[in-house]
Write a structure and sequence with these properties.
With 179 residues, the protein is mainly β. The protein has a single domain, classed as Immunoglobulin-like. The protein is 12% helix and 33% strand. The chain is built from three helices and twelve strands; from the N terminus they run αβββαββββββαβββ. Strands 1-12-11-6-7 form a five-stranded mixed β-sheet, with no helix packed on it. Strands 2, 3, 4, 9 and 10 form a five-stranded antiparallel β-sheet that branches. Strands 5-8 form a two-stranded antiparallel ribbon.
């Protein structure tokens, strides 16, 4: 009977199915699944355009500077394809506050900014950002999503990052963000 259980366990582990994660997290750090890809918010924070490190995260942004009642807010993401098939990461995200106001990512030119998040096709067990990239080894260890938020979000917390899997109309996966 023990041999049968071991054989069954070995057979199931060889199927190539990824470990299932929840589709929502109450804090940054846990993995959430959106379609076949697992996502993790490495870090989220307000950016200061006068700080040397933060200026790097703002290169390649064509959007006008924030107004006095707005701020730059970055979410640094990591993703993994835990399946045995090729899969594409999403480029469909938004942040929603407790009043229902939605904020969408500001485009970043990835040819200028090596931290910019762009949808990637990942091989089985592939990750974004790719190993040996600047974003992978940078202080945030993630690809950057940049948002221009109204400062009223401080009164409308928590903020929720919504992750929409490519080609799916299902409810988004969600992560509560630190602010």
């Amino acid at each position: 009977m023990l041999l049968a259980a071991l054989a069954l366990g070995a057979g199931l582990s060889a199927c190539g199915h990824k470990e299932a994660h929840p589709t929502s997290a109450d804090t940054e750090g846990p993995y959430v699944d959106a379609g076949p890809i697992s996502y993790q918010v490495q870090l989220s924070r307000q950016l200061n355009p006068f700080a040397i490190e933060d200026r790097t995260y703002l290169t390649g942004v064509a959007s006008p500077r924030p107004r006095p009642d707005e701020m730059w807010f970055a979410v640094f993401m990591w993703a993994k394809n835990g399946t045995n098939r090729v899969a594409t990461t999403t480029d469909s995200f938004d942040i929603v506050d407790t009043q229902g106001t939605k904020y969408y990512p500001v485009p970043i030119n990835p040819a200028i900014n090596p931290f910019a998040w762009t949808a990637q096709t990942l091989r089985p067990l592939g990750t974004e950002p790719v190993p040996d990239s600047i974003a992978y080894f940078g202080p945030t260890q993630g690809g950057e999503l940049l948002f221009k938020l109204n400062t009223a979000v401080y009164s409308n917390r928590p903020l929720t990052l919504q992750i929409y899997a490519p080609g799916q109309q299902a409810e988004p996966s969600t992560v509560s963000l630190d602010l």
